[in-house]
Amino acid sequence: MLPDLDSLRLFVRTAELGSLTKAAAACHIAVAAASRRIAQLEHLYRDKLLLRTVKGVVLTPAGEVLRVHAARVIEEAIGLEAGMIAHAQQMQDTLRIFANTSAVSWFLPADLAEFKARHPGYQLEIKERQSCVVVDAVQSGEADMGIFNGEPPKEGLRCFAYKLDRLAAIVPRNHPLGSSEISFEEVLEFELVSLEPSSALAQLIIDKAAALDKPLQLRLQMKSFQSVCRMVKCGLGIGLLPLQALQEITKLFGLRSIPLSDAWATRPLWVCVRNSGPPRKALQALLEHLIPPGGRFVSPGRGLAAVPTPASAARIDARS
Fold first, then answer.
1. How would DSSP label each residue in 14-81?
2. In CATH, 96-161+274-294 is 1.10.3900.10
């Protein structure tokens, strides 16, 4: 059996003051209660710890051993409490963000840099993941916030419209296709280089091809935007990727982006958080930074689009 910290604190205080009465007053307990605590310690360790004299109390040899160890235990307990409080505070000020490649490649870095400049006390942990993984991570609590493409889940999450991006065909500069717009049906005449099957974009392409009852010539399926662009550069097919996210990559690889004319090719990026009551302060601040009140989508290649903010993208109300 181990002694409680309050009894050890009382004992150390008694040793420091040389008086049980003064120690009891310093610990805000009655003298009788203090005396019982000392008696319990002596019973626990089966030895006399204090000798009472007309001038107060003095430590026995056993009491001196206990004083040294008790002081160390109390110091460790104080350090433990301080460490746990600091950890809790750090967790309150740390935001775990999972975002898909489209968000990480273009929109998110500048927005997070601006947020960090305004809120230097908040820490950001950012992981790039596929959209399906992003949603699962927020639902499970592994992430505080997620940014993804695709259909927002109907339960468990609050989703807010963040940005719009538009899919584009990625071709070598000397490719015979034009440079203004192209339909998805026209793209299907060529061999494609796509992202791996588990990605939301690959599934979208498969679904849209099936809706047109057209064969899908998927020659290669890659893990990243860069890998797709490398294959396109080598003439192994046409890529279908988000236009905005590829601005720097296409320049780097000497490729052209041809926006798709299909309405479904303009896709929203969603910000999601758990639907579990008001968010903590740091998360609320980031939400308000990414989803400003009355904000509108910027449609790539078309300027400001007259698209109203969806009801699900209304500014989060901490009172709801």
1. HHHHT-HHHHHHHTTS-HHHHHHHHHHHHHHHTS--EEEETTEEEE-HHHHHHHHHHHHHHHHHHHHH
2. no
| Residues with pLDDT less than 70, the chain | 1-2, 85-92, 293-320
Question: Which two tokens mark 294?
Answer: 């009355």
Instruction: Specify the CATH architecture of the domain 164-265.
Output: 3-Layer(aba) Sandwich (3.40)
What pLDDT is recorded for position 295? 45
Instruction: Encode pLDDT of 270-315 as tens digits.
Output: 999 998 878 888 999 999 999 876 544 333 433 333 333 333 333 3
Domain with residues 5-90, CATH architecture: Orthogonal Bundle (1.10)
Q: How far apart are CA 205 and CA 193, in angstroms?
A: 11
